[in-house]
Amino acid sequence: MPFFEAKHSPVFGVSIGYGVALSKNYTGGLYAGLDFGYRYQISERSALAVVFFAQFQQAKVNTKQTIEGEEFVHKTGREFVTPGVKLALYF
């Protein structure tokens, strides 16, 4: 979202939530994101934006292995950080 409606304006966004599990081996975890960039107003109804972002995702992983009839469970957590750039056209 732009800070103000002008021909040139900075943009900023924040997201936070909880990621859901995609399989029984992975459990969900914290999700957070941060966006900041520049927005150029092309016309009254359209704009172009370049946004830099970073996203953080946390997950817990359960690994089960059976060795000679005995089951072993390994539980661990992982964090993923994804940086990037978005180019957006609003109309």
State the main characteristics.
mainly beta, rod-shaped, 91 residues
How does this structure look, described?
The chain is mostly beta strands. It has one domain. It is built from no helices and five strands. The protein has strands at residues 8-19, 26-27, 29-41, 47-67, 70-90. Strands 1, 2, 3, 4 and 5 form a five-stranded antiparallel beta sheet that branches. The model has no long low-confidence stretch (mean pLDDT 85).
Q: Average the pLDDT over all residues and give the rounded result.
A: 85
Radius of gyration of CA atoms, rounded to a whole number: 20 Å
Unreliable parts: none
Number of structural units classed as domains: 1
State the end-to-end distance: 14 Å
Class from secondary-structure proportions: mainly beta
Order of helices and strands: EEEEE
Shape: rod-shaped
The main sheet comes to: 5 strands, antiparallel
Helix content: under 10%
Query: What's the oligomerization state?
Result: single chain
Instruction: Please report which band the strand proportion falls in: under 5%, 5-15%, 15-25%, 25-35%, 35-45% or over 45%.
Output: over 45%
Helical run tally: 0
Count of extended strands: 5
